[in-house]
Design brief:
3 domains; 8 helices; ABC_transporter_C-like; ATP-binding; ABC transmembrane type-1 domain-containing protein
Length: about 230
């Protein structure tokens, strides 16, 4: 007899059939409620997980790729003489092209004011800011995670108020049923069901938004650990 609480152990090598993390190919609804993670959770519920059951991260989320991106963006903000040899040689060709273009542009213009402004703009482009490099590398994920975290905190703050509304309605309905006429008639059963569904959706959305925001934090933490 099949027992859903004690399922048959899944065969080994769960991730061999599809080794890449399926989050990127999942639909937006599946990513919103984390339904793409259900097969992996089913395997973990049926037996202890092994190394062959774990998916591989896509290239864009691996630590080496994240590190190279931040390193490239950071040294692009540093003066050429302060860059490592590899980045200095790579950027020298770009600087030569930019210098020729700048000289050509400056040859068409006259006046010391224009030249001083161009030199000041050229110097200001190298600020050696690690924060700006990190922001440039993770700008989309950071702002999405921050927005999701804000919504999650708002729902976490307002969910007790919705709980209070539900308990008040239950109390009034009970008193009105036991002593009709003692208090005004409360709203119908549909109101209570709607508040209960809203409270359930708020609690579930808090969990989903917390996982979504923690994904971006995990990428940043891997970068710092590397």
């Amino acid at each position: 007899m099949y027992n859903p609480f004690y399922p048959k152990p899944a065969p080994p090598g769960f991730a061999k059939a599809s080794p890449l993390l399926p989050e990127g190919s999942a639909s937006w609804l599946s990513r919103l409620v984390f339904h793409w993670l259900s097969p992996f959770l089913d395997v973990g519920f049926s037996r202890p997980l092994e190394q062959d059951d774990l998916w591989e991260l896509p290239q864009s989320k691996q630590t080496a790729e994240l590190t190279d991106r931040v390193e490239r963006l950071f040294y692009a903000r540093c003066p050429p003489e302060q860059r490592p040899i590899a980045f200095r040689a790579k950027s020298s060709r770009t600087n030569d092209i930019d210098s020729h273009a700048t000289e050509k542009d400056l040859g068409d213009t006259k006046g010391d004011g224009i030249n001083s402004k161009s030199e000041g703009a050229k110097k200001s482009q190298y600020d050696s800011s690690l924060f700006k490099a990190l922001h440039r590398a993770f700008i989309v994920r950071w702002w999405i995670a921050g927005f999701m975290h804000l919504i999650g905190d708002t729902l976490r703050t307002t969910s007790p108020l919705v709980t209070k509304v539900l308990l008040t309605w239950l109390s009034e309905s009970f008193i009105y049923h036991r002593a009709p006429g003692s208090i005004p008639q409360p709203r119908g059963i549909g109101y209570g069901i709607g508040v209960g569904i809203a409270l359930f959706a708020m609690q579930g959305e808090i969990w989903c938004l917390t996982l979504t925001s923690s994904d971006a934090y995990r990428d940043f933490k891997k970068l710092l650990a590397f």
